[in-house]
Amino acid sequence: MNGVTILLGSAVIFLIAYLTYGSWLAKQWGVDPSRKTPAETEKDGIDYLPTRPAVLLGHHFSSIAGAGPIVGPITAAVFGWVPVTLWIIVGSIFFGGVHDYGSLVASLRHKGQSIGQIIDSNIGERAKLLFAIFAWVTLLVIIAAFANIVAATFVANPGAGSSSLLFIVLAVAFGLLVYRSGMSLAVGTVIGLIGMAAAFWLGHIFPITLSKDVWLLLMMGYIFVASIAPVWILLQPRDYLNSFLLYIMIAAAFIGICLYQPEMEISPFVGFDLGGGQWLFPVLFVTVACGAISGFHSLVSSGTSSKQLDNERNAKLIGYGSMLIEGLLAICAIISVAYVSADKLPELLKNGGPVNAFSQGTATFMTAIGLDFNLSKEFVALTISAFALTTLDTATRLGRFIFQEMVTTKAGANSPLGKAVSNRYVATGITIALAWIMSTGSYLTIWPIFGTANQMLAALALLAIAAWLKKSKRNHLMITIPMYFMFAVTFCSLGQLIYANLGKNWLIVGVSTVLAVLSAALAVEAFRVFGEENRINASAQAQNQQ
């Protein structure tokens, strides 16, 4: 089959879903443009700040995209392009989009608080603590995985590394000009885009060659600063400007695929069992991750985006629309490797990993537009690494939020230790230090834990949204069906990981066991509350009938 048919067909399906299913969800959840958002009622200029939709879309999309929709689908291509493509389309519309949008709306109804606080309000404080621990451990894995991928990308493409450093300086300048000097967003955007082009060219001419370990240390220093600085000076400007990179890359890839018209050379379907414990269920649904549904997205929706949304009418664009765009990017990713023959795919993935494979494939398509292959490949690598860095600083900020929530529970909020470690500098330092230790291995070691933990986090976030909708007496079937499926996927995957790594990799065994115990305890806690509420409702109905 031709890749153009798949790409255009997916784009049409996503557009129809946005206009129909997205609007239906807004009605079911009571989205109200006349209601003030937490960014207005809780405004503090640091975390809570009303933000233009274009800027917030850039932040949100940059944060959730990262390298996930590239690495996941390409890694899962070993099962064949048909199951991966089907899961990306179905998952983005009915799983990931609902999950992201629901997390955003639920947070808006709880003063911009995180999923953990939503669980506290609707299930209980003990459940909140369990979720906070789970989410924090998952964020450590996310930071470790993406830092490892970015460092490897910078080693393979030194120009992308030097350009990324220049982008950081440019983002700070943009923030000062737009938010403190009164420059209009339009003028600032033009200057910013010119600056990005210059930074890309300078990085291409003056590449910085460093070892992977040095890049890891530099990134840890950067995300420490980025996670504690006010959102207007680095987080928002960097994400907003970086979003243009991704828009340009997606557009170039889209046009390039249409002109190049690649055939899907890899097998449509390889089989349900690839050997070595690689079964289609649950491995496919864990590996694709961000390309269809990602628990990390719920932390972004409820952790930073809900605190910056200026009007609820924009919630569908930010929450649901961003996930559909990410789904389209995942479709581009699978096409970028599907044009090579099946026997060449393992070699392509071995030499540089999924990001390098995606860069090579997309650059090949971009030659159909008349662009230079080497320059295009460097641009694609820069774009993906820039978004992975965005994911890193957002994940670190969220890790700081959640760590502070954990140590400031009612039991320990006033203790000397609680006060000391809840300091934002200490909380950030602890989060980064542990993530750095985990990041020193190979991404292939971290990714299985990341995928499973990330998808379990999605199941728990759906559980929190379902609890809120149930308590609000609203329809929650669109949440509970994906929730049960994701619980089945992730519990199977955790069991599989533990069994396959016994006596081989105790890091995976240990982390998987901790995550399994935490998620099981939280699920039991939630369903206990659901059962009590059902009994109360049944008793009330019986009394009314009498």
TrEMBL record:
Compartments it resides in: Cell membrane
Keyword annotations from UniProtKB, A to Z: Cell membrane, Membrane, Transmembrane, Transmembrane helix
UniProt-listed GO biological process terms: cellular response to starvation
Name of the protein: Carbon starvation protein A
Biological source species: Parasutterella muris
Gene Ontology CC annotation, any one: plasma membrane
Membrane topology: Multi-pass membrane protein
Superkingdom per UniProt: Bacteria
Species lineage: Bacteria, Pseudomonadati, Pseudomonadota, Betaproteobacteria, Burkholderiales
Chief place of localization: membrane
Family to which this protein belongs: Belongs to the peptide transporter carbon starvation (CstA) (TC 2.A.114) family.
Domain CstA N-terminal: 2-343, 348-492
Transmembrane regions: 6-26, 61-81, 87-108, 129-154, 160-179, 186-208, 214-235, 244-262, 277-296, 317-340, 379-403, 424-446, 452-469, 481-500, 506-527
Pfam families: CstA (PF02554)
